[in-house]
Amino acid sequence: MAMCHPTGQALKSGYADGPVTKLKAGEVVPVRFWTFGVPDKCDKPATSIKGGDQARHGGGYCEFSLSYDGGKQWRVIGQYTRSCPDIFYEWPVLIPQNAPSCTDSKRCLFSFSWVAFSVNQFYHHCANVEIQGSTNGKLPPLKMTVADLKAPRTVHAEGDAKKGKGKGSGPDPREVRLNRGGFFAYGGGAKTKGLDLRLLGPRGQRL
Prior knowledge:
Elements: E1 2-5, E2 20-24, E3 28-34, E4 60-67, E5 75-80, E6 91-94, E7 109-116, E8 122-132, E9 156-157, H1 173-180, E10 199-200
């Protein structure tokens, strides 16, 4: 599973810089996903997939973040729980109205990170971007969720696993409103906490 809008790639590790997507503060980015078996088009969500398995691992939580220093620091601008990702839907994410400009696409990154339901794995995918932002703007204070856990201390996220490997339940309407409405911006309601990401420990306990 990978972002196809903005056009993404694995984070560095020897990979060449990808295509640059130009964004503006206040713009809602209709994030879309791609997986094997889907035609290489991303102008709208997928309508079918060969074999019926999009490898979304029963859903989970997704975070969308910005980095202005080549991936050393990340600030969250969007979150979706339980049903993300899914190639059959768009996932709106607002570039905060008060985000600062970032014109060096080698350092300016838009990130998708994902903790799945049915496997204990963390996924991370990035896009090179340029952002036309606000004068004296500020990035949000919420940091990307990360954990360094050695087996068997594994973590996964609640999902919509009853939907199986095919089409899931899609983005929660309340979360869409928050992601479109500035909740994750500097000064917004997310502050340094954000949404409850519904993380589960090795015995299924809520974290």
